[in-house]
Amino acid sequence: MPVVAVIGAQWGDEGKGKIVDLLSSKADVVARSQGGANAGHTIERGEEKIILHLLPSGILTPGILCLIGPGVVLDPEAFIKELDHVKTLGVSLQGRLTLDFRTHLVLPTHKLIEAHQEKDRGEDMIGTTCRGIGPTYADKASRQGVRVGDLLQKSRRLKVCGDLFDHHAALLKCFYKQVEPDRKVFLEMTERWAEALAPFAGDAVEQLHQALDTNRNVLLEGAQGTLLDLDLGTYPYVTSSHPTIGGPVLGLGVPPRKIDFVLGVLKAYCTRVGCGPFPTEMDEVTAEEIRKRGAEFGSTTGRPRRCGWLDLIAARQAARWNGIDGWAVTKLDVLDGQKPLKACIGYQIKGKVITSVPATHQGWEQVEPVYGELKGWKDSYSKRSMEDLPQGAIEYLETIEKFTHIPVYMISLGAGQEATILPRGEIIK
Ligand code: IMP
Asked: Distance between CA atoms of 393 and 239, rounded to whole angstroms?
């Protein structure tokens, strides 16, 4: 019966991959609803570290149906590469993966255009992953995008892909003064995509609804995080999709009332990749320590992540916007031995306390964090139950619960599945 949505509560990289992988053992269906190959969901199984960009994290659990919804933007080259990768791991995809007919495709020219856009922004660059995400969503909104279903009939493929290619080629040639890409090579490429994607193409939305109708356990896997939401985040330093709870509603056609539990994934501290406001950003010496301990390097781009203290104002806002029912607090072990240990408990602008996150660019630039100090703890990593957790770690978790009014359902103390505590039992029984 449960439909559980897993939502990043910060700026992405909260550790959603492990959480989804863990919950997958009880799920029948895992579905991705937004984002694209900008995401990097890391799963560790024993010695093996697997990074998934497009495939739902449930793909590693045998027997689960994995769906990629219309709200995702899919880079066919990255998808084919990822399919090959999981096949080498012995993962069987037979009848287990549906890529929705409506899902939009990221073309190589989207990535070229984005590289020019970022360069032209100069100091105001967003620091995107350069995976063509923004330009693809822009073409989708302009109703000139290419969808998976368009690949399946030759005449339609040539028409839709050719039209968008011509538009991009003109832009690259006339506006960005770049050598025009080769149309013939591009159209041949789309033929290869058609062959590779056709076995997986289908109506993922309908399959999801059939699962809902038959009371299956469904996991809705969010990508990125709440503060990167196109509408609600730190615009323009955001991604171009909806990592908030609206993501699965729009991007998979899930009726909001069908979602039984919203699990917010909250890293015990904050990170951000790319540019833009980050109120609790640490001094570089402390950030460097946390980055090392937490292996905080982008799993898609390898960029060092900016590190900051836990931001309880942002967490509380994420809880309100997403209707979060419970937290999965991740990477608590990274704060082992951290002294001093700070958490942001207030925002102020020009000395005036504000109770929600700013809604303007200027507000985000001016906001200053107000910190509370916590006593910290020595070692949590080796602990496997609530009773064993050091008092300082328990206090940290209680502070999160009290401040946000949201209970903690999962505590992650390491990359492996065994390094997890469920203080309130299983979410999916
Ligand atoms: P884009 O999604 O590639 O357009 O990048 C826009 C912003 O979102 C940049 O700051 C990226 O670093 C950030 N971003 C996109 N995907 C992720 C992610 O999966 N984790 C963390 N940050 C991300």
From this structure: 33
Domains and CATH numbers, the chain: 3-94+203-421 (3.40.440.10), 104-200 (1.10.300.10)
State the Cα–Cα distance between residues 218 and 202, nearest whole angstrom.
18
Q: What is the pLDDT of residue 383?
A: 85
β-strands 218-221, 3-8 pairing = parallel
Ligand 1 atom nearest to 301, measured from its CA: 12
Choice among 21, 41, 75, 168 that is catalytic? 41
Probe target for ligand 1 pocket from 130, 139, 239, with the most ligand atoms within 8 Å of CB: 239
Compute the distance between CA of residue 406 and CA of residue 403 in angstroms, rounded to an integer.
8
Q: Which residues in 156-175 are b (16+ Cβ under 10 Å) and which e? A: ebeebbeebbeebbebbeee
Q: What is the pLDDT of residues 46-65, one digit of tens each?
A: 788 899 999 999 999 999 99
β-bridge partners, 352? 349
H helix intervals, 204-301: 204-213, 246-251, 284-293
More confident residue, 71 or 428: 71
CA distance 218 to 204: 13
By alpha-carbon position, which residue is closest to atom 19 of ligand 1?
39
pLDDT band at 207 (very low <50, low <70, confident <90, very high): very high
Average pLDDT, the chain: 96
Q: How many CA atoms lie within 13 A of 417 on its CB side?
A: 12
- DSSP per-residue letters across 114-170: HHHHHHHHGGG------SSHHHHHHHHHTT---BGGGGGSHHHHHHHHHHHHHHHHH
How confident is the model over 169-193, as a mean pLDDT?
Answer: 96
Ligand 1, pocket residues at CB < 6 Å: 11-13, 38-40, 126-129, 131, 133-134, 223-224, 228, 237, 239-240, 273-274
The residues, ordered by sequence, that sit 6+ positions from 117 with a Cβ below 8 Å of its Cβ are 134, 135
pLDDT for res 1: 60
Q: Active-site residue 75, yes or no?
A: no
Residue 43 has pLDDT above 90, yes or no: no
